[in-house]
């Protein structure tokens, strides 16, 4: 291939990518780029529908079945680079032509999945996007074991497109942890702009929804208006999300530091507690050079004593809409700690009124179904329920989850709890991003009290609780 031919192929490929960028940022057609792209696609022997974002990949493959093999593993082959352009050796004319062909196919996938869809979204449009996202995953060599995107903080689990859009071959760069959150965000936006009840009433569409925090918030807000099939599907999505997040949090509870050993309790003198290194070190003076033996006249044991009195954990959750992320995470976390031995967990939710959810603390799914998002906030109502539960202050931790835009009289109650010996852990935000607004007045006063507000990844709260409970 001559340098002139190589330059021509490069120009055609760049034209396709410039058109892709233009359409991603502006849905309006740019006449010159469209004309050049049509000419390039026609010269490749590809259908003009490849350039039409209103035509789904499913529809394209149904009309032109031979293209299915081209999309399959398109971005996962060993010779493909990140932008879909092969870097295989060789300089023949076919290599340059194949690069242009690959660029046209990649552009189709990216445009259909990532181009903005303005206005209201129908159930059919959501279903079509899910299938296109499935084709993108297939092009990336995803094995189809999970959906187009996963629940935040729940790894890659989820449910995405089925049928032609799932499954995959090739070694693949895979979607990894980078693409899936992006697809989840796009899907969440589409769901927000459509009639969610319409989707939930369709078992096929509901099964393909990927449970995410934004979707769960919508379900919790709208659950009173759901019934029949829609309500059953909503509960199934909430249950899936709870189970996925719970598995992640259980791992974090197991892996986090469990605090310091209680050295006030003498170590139990059994073989498994024997501190061999310390025993040898302390008895070195008894070494006999003649016998070449170490005579031990004192044994040393490791301290392994743990709390014997059951600890009480009181979790108070602000169920206003702004706290939904932290509320879901901490409700699930409370259920995990409730399953540990010697931990007595109580759960209270509040807005302007308070509700004792302790009977359901072992099942966060049931807790979430009983919450009512939104409304005002008055923590003094929750304090009236929580305070009588404190029977042994120095053996009690109160986890208060709120943005603290609240009744300032609540600060007096916090000070009283702290003076009594209760371990107070105020929580402003515990999520994957660590972002959250906290009222500055409460934040400053809680910090001065020696109980700063925790904001950030939920691992921070896990470590705090395990340190207290150890």
TrEMBL record:
Gene3D superfamilies given in the database record: von Willebrand factor, type A domain
InterPro entries for the chain: LolB, Uncharacterised_CoxE, vWFA_dom_sf
Residue ranges, annotated region (Disordered): 155-176
Domain of life: Bacteria
Protein name: VWA domain-containing protein
């Amino acid at each position: 291939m001559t340098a002139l031919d190589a330059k021509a192929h490069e120009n055609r490929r760049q034209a396709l990518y410039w058109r892709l960028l233009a359409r991603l940022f502006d849905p309006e057609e740019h006449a010159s780029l469209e004309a050049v792209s049509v000419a390039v696609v026609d010269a490749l022997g590809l259908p003009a529908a490849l350039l039409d974002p209103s035509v789904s990949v499913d529809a394209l493959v149904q009309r032109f079945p031979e293209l299915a093999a081209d999309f399959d593993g398109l971005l996962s082959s060993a010779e493909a680079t990140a932008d879909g352009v092969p870097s295989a050796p060789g300089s023949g004319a076919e290599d340059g032509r194949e690069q242009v062909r690959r660029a046209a196919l990649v552009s189709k996938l990216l445009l259909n999945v990532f181009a903005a869809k303005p206005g209201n979204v129908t159930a059919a449009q959501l279903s079509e996007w899910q299938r296109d996202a499935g084709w993108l995953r297939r092009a990336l060599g995803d094995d189809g074991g999970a959906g187009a995107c996963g629940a935040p903080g729940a790894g890659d689990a989820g449910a995405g497109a089925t049928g032609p859009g799932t499954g995959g071959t090739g070694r693949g760069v895979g979607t990894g942890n980078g693409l899936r959150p992006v697809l989840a965000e796009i899907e969440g936006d589409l769901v927000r702009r459509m009639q969610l009840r319409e989707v939930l009433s369709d078992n096929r569409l509901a099964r393909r929804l990927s449970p995410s925090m934004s979707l769960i918030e919508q379900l919790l807000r709208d659950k009173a208006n759901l019934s029949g099939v829609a309500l059953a599907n909503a509960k199934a999505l909430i249950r899936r999300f709870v189970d996925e997040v719970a598995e992640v949090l259980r791992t974090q509870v197991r892996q986090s530091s469990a605090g310091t050993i209680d050295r006030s309790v003498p170590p139990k003198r059994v073989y498994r507690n024997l501190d061999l290194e310390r025993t040898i070190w302390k008895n070195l003076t008894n070494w006999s050079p003649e016998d070449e033996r170490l005579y031990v006249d004192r044994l040393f044991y490791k301290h392994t004593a743990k709390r014997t009195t059951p600890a009480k954990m009181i979790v108070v959750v602000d169920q206003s809409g702004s706290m939904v992320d932290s509320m879901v995470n901490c409700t699930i976390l409370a259920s995990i700690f409730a399953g540990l031995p010697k931990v007595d967990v109580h759960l209270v939710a509040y807005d302007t009124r308070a509700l004792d959810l302790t009977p359901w603390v072992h099942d966060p799914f049931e807790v979430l179904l009983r919450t009512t998002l939104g409304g005002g906030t008055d923590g003094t109502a929750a304090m009236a329920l929580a305070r009588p539960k404190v029977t042994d202050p120095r053996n009690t931790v109160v986890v208060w989850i709120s943005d603290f835009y609240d009744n300032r009289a609540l600060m007096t109650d916090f000070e009283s709890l702290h003076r009594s010996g209760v371990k107070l852990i105020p929580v402003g935000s515990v999520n994957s991003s660590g972002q959250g607004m906290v009222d500055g007045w409460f934040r400053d006063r809680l910090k001065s009290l020696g109980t700063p507000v925790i904001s950030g990844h939920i691992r921070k709260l896990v470590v705090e609780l395990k340190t207290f409970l150890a």
